[in-house]
Design brief:
The structure is a homodimer of 331-residue chains. Chain A has 331 residues and is of the alpha/beta class. Chain A has nine helices and 15 strands. Helices cover 25% and strands 26% of the residues of chain A. In chain A, strand 14, helix 9 and strand 15 form a beta-alpha-beta unit. In chain A, helix 2 crosses helix 3 and helix 2 crosses helix 8. Chain A is globular. The interface between A and B is medium-sized, with 27 and 27 residues. Strand 13 of chain A pairs antiparallel with strand 13 of chain B.
């Protein structure tokens, strides 16, 4: 049996290039006791991947050059010497960007694909959904009647944040980069307001939609978006930093928020979300979100590309805003 | 009787200029019922004054052009039609940059000058001391054994923060702009480490003095200092923004902290201190600080200049780091 894997060959200093990755094949080795083999069906394409290509000074080590790219992947156990993960079950976790993964099960969770799609466990029921859930509820602490603004709102994190905030009784504003995405936020996700940051004046629109300011800003973008949001905070505002996709391709030259003193005058605070800190609570959270999906309160949109050979091009879609919905690469 | 007053004549866009202020005289009018007249003896020269010269989009309105400059001032009641403020008592509050102030007592507090110096009520027992006290204790929440770094440490806020942190059992690092100020921090204020930011590498020194990172960063400076501190946060760190003296002369071009994402990976937060939010608790806090001064646990240093005609030059000392200790202008 042959494994095909995407390897990290170069650490880019700016935008990701095709030459930063390699595509290799190798023979799948024998299982040791306690291990099992996963036939991977789908990969989650996340902004976090860009950070994993760096040497690793943040919350998690960078990927070693020449080794398989780190990836949240999902698939079926097809061989096993581990009684907790029997042949036939479906699993999700850091299984790598490859067709076949051998693991001892550390950090791997069994997923239920009878009542939910396998790919949902990479998105709204996986790391991005958990990031939205815990970032909003534990860090943002929404209260009914408050106004929340979420950037990159049509992505899986942003759309989940906004929809959970609606469930919690908030007024929800989202920004995205196209008319289609804005229409999706209003029509399908039930947002109150959508701002096309490419054609509309973000500052003016925030002042229009949130005249008393924004109580929670959930940021996936950074740069000018963060700075403009800081100028529109309500008293007691919480700024939850999840990501900074506008800055990831030039990490040596990050734009700091000049309006950071607005946090002081708003009597607010800025904090962040590291989703792994809540990993013990993921099962309960996925169950709650699955319930909301079943009730039609959370709408899920996926953007699916096929083939490991398209790994780089698919990853680049995230940084140019070309994806529309949770980006998945099927194997 | 004649009042001499400093008026705001121009809103500077950069550094403060002598022509931004006027010096006028006027006849002191008759008191109305409920009012009293204060013969002002000393003015507090604070970095906040620079913000009050702007049109006012922050926590407090800007000073109107042509009117007396806002100022925390202290003096003696010499005439009164208010039973709560009798002739002979000493008071402190926003009495303006002038020799004689008429007030109805709103926001004015009676101070005890028998056991403490009048000028202390403008510094360590006044707004700056309260800013240090509540910013550190309520926002920074120091715990014994933690490491705190305070910038502009030889100023009244910084030196008070550091000395209270020592009382609370923390390891204290301070930065200042001269050898004399650093020596003062160690020898007189009991700081554990002092960094001369003009001659030493702040990042290298923070890594040396706080190898596991800084638990509390109390910032009075902004700019590169804030950015470097963010790169040296311990897990669970609190960043308390008090001021940004390095940025006040060019508010239209503030340097945002590029390392703001370090707050996320440190699982920390950034917040601020608005001292007026704690005004009801000031009496208890001043009493506690006065006790620490009496016990020799808090050392106070003042830099006194005489004469309202020196108002601008004295204010400018704050922004060039020329003052050494709490800057006071006596009348």
């Amino acid at each position: 049996m042959t494994n095909t894997l995407v390897t990290l060959e170069n650490r880019p200093s700016g935008a990701v290039k095709v030459s930063d990755f390699g595509l290799k094949t190798e023979k799948v080795r024998e299982l040791k006791n306690g291990e099992f083999l996963v036939n991977i069906e789908a990969l989650s394409m996340d902004p976090a991947i860009r950070g994993w290509m760096n040497p690793g000074t943040t919350y998690i080590k960078g990927v070693e050059l020449g080794t398989v790219m780190r990836s949240f992947s999902a698939g079926k156990v097809i061989d096993s010497k581990n009684d907790s993960f029997k042949v036939g079950v479906y699993v999700e976790g850091l299984l790598g960007a490859q067709t076949h993964a051998i693991t001892d099960g550390t950090g791997i969770r069994i997923i239920n694909v009878e009542n939910s799609k396998l790919t949902h466990h990479l998105g709204v029921l996986g790391m991005p959904g958990m990031t939205a859930y815990f970032g909003l509820l534990r860090r943002g602490e929404p209260k009914p009647g408050e106004v929340i603004y979420v950037s990159a709102a049509s992505g899986v994190v942003g759309s989940t944040v906004g929809q959970i905030a609606k469930i919690k009784g908030c007024t929800v504003i989202g920004s995205a980069g196209s008319e289609a995405k804005c229409k999706y936020l209003i029509d399908e996700c039930g947002f109150d307001h959508a701002i096309n940051y490419k054609t509309e004046d973000l500052d003016a629109k925030l002042k229009e939609y949130a005249p008393d300011g924004v109580h929670i800003f959930y940021d996936n973008v950074g740069g000018d978006t963060l700075n403009t949001a800081l100028a529109n905070l309500a008293q007691g505002a919480r700024v939850v930093i999840c990501g900074a996709i506008s800055q990831y391709n030039d990490m040596g030259n990050i734009q700091g928020p000049a309006n950071y003193m607005k946090i002081v005058t708003a009597r607010g605070y800025m904090t962040g979300i590291i989703v792994f800190d809540f990993i013990k609570e993921w099962p309960a959270a996925t169950k709650e979100i699955a319930g909301w999906i079943a009730e039609g309160k959370i709408h899920v949109k996926e953007d699916v590309v096929h083939g490991l050979e398209n790994y780089t091009e698919t990853l680049m879609m995230l940084f140019t805003g070309k994806n529309f919905g949770k980006l998945i690469l099927t194997v």
